[in-house]
Amino acid sequence: MKIGLLGAGSVALHHALAAAHLGHQVAAASSLSADSPRWKRFHEAFSDARFVADGHDLFSDESLDAVVSCLPWDRTEEWLDAILASPRPVLMEKPAALSSARLITALENPRPAALKAVAYNRRFYEPVRRLRERLAKGGLKSAEVLISEDISQHEARHPGVMKALEVFSSHTFDLALFLFGPLSAVKVYSHGGGPKDAGFVSRHALLETAAGLPVWLTLNANDPSPVGLRCRFDDATTWHLSPIETLRVYDGYEVQPAQPGVHIRRYLPHVRETVEADARLKPGFVEQMGAFLSGQKADLADIGQSVALLRLIESLRS
């Protein structure tokens, strides 16, 4: 298949490498200028790719089989209607929009049936697949989701950004919805933040699944805690994605007896199994690209699913 890319930055390069790894042709890419460093770097890797000055031309190019949109997060909304109107399948980088209202309005317009998906690649990690299989067997008692945002880094790269949840946290929110299904906020606690938080409001919330199971959300600025998702099952195992690229399954304890001079008996969780994501290329990108180009929708983040994601985030602010 012939692939076109809207944008030629580092994320576009990762998507192109994934497509090429699967045997597809990276045929074209758009960039602000043929003289831009990003295009030159992209073209060095894919010398057969032609430069497209106007990204809209990718959507109408009949020589292309699919398009991958790799726009910056603050440019996606202005391109959203064109993406949805494209007769070609489009895989778009997150977020689909910055509000549920904007996305709903766009989705109400008549559009071709071609697949439109959002690139939440963590869905395709092997550790996530394994955890999802375990969840499907039942027995979940409770879960925790911990997110920490490095506000100083965000401010340095995106001055004045106040959409950290929709932009930077959305990967983890999408993963929580992918694993647990619909989530509703039962109780939300807010904290205005400290002097380093640049106005970011931390959220602590009790969420609930459709089956009435508790999911505790901890979302802080500049929190040096290990981010991830933890699931506790009724078979006395705990499954922990932290970082998201690594799954550890715990059962029971390893007891370290007290020693002379150290009169403490230590109980350490026993790691039964560890599963790592394949990182030879950008994790999840190859599997996601394969699903997108073959039209296998089961694990892809259909653009309509982002409505529930954005509404969940908005409920934490209300």
Topology:
Elements: E1 2-6, H1 10-21, E2 25-30, H2 37-45, E3 50-52, H3 56-60, E4 66-69, H4 76-85, E5 90-92, H5 100-108, E6 116-118, H6 126-136, E7 140-149, H7 151-157, H8 164-167, H9 170-180, E8 183-191, E9 202-209, E10 214-221, E11 228-233, E12 237-241, E13 246-256, E14 266-276, H10 285-294, E15 301-302, H11 305-317
Parallel strand pairs: 1-2, 1-4, 2-3, 4-5, 5-6, 7-10
Antiparallel strand pairs: 6-15, 7-11, 8-9, 9-10, 11-12, 12-13, 13-14
Describe this structure in words.
The strands form 2 sheets. The protein has an 8-stranded mixed beta sheet. A 7-stranded mixed beta sheet has the order 3-2-1-4-5-6-15. The chain has 11 helices and 15 strands. Helices cover 32% and strands 30% of the residues. By secondary structure, it is α/β, with parallel strands linked by helices. The protein has helices at residues 10-21, 37-45, 56-60, 76-85, 100-108, 126-136, 151-157, 164-167, 170-180, 285-294, 305-317; strands spanning 2-6, 25-30, 50-52, 66-69, 90-92, 116-118, 140-149, 183-191, 202-209, 214-221, 228-233, 237-241, 246-256, 266-276, 301-302. The protein has 2 domains: 2-122, Rossmann fold, CATH 3.40.50.720; 126-282, 2-Layer Sandwich (Dihydrodipicolinate Reductase, domain 2). The mean pLDDT is 93.
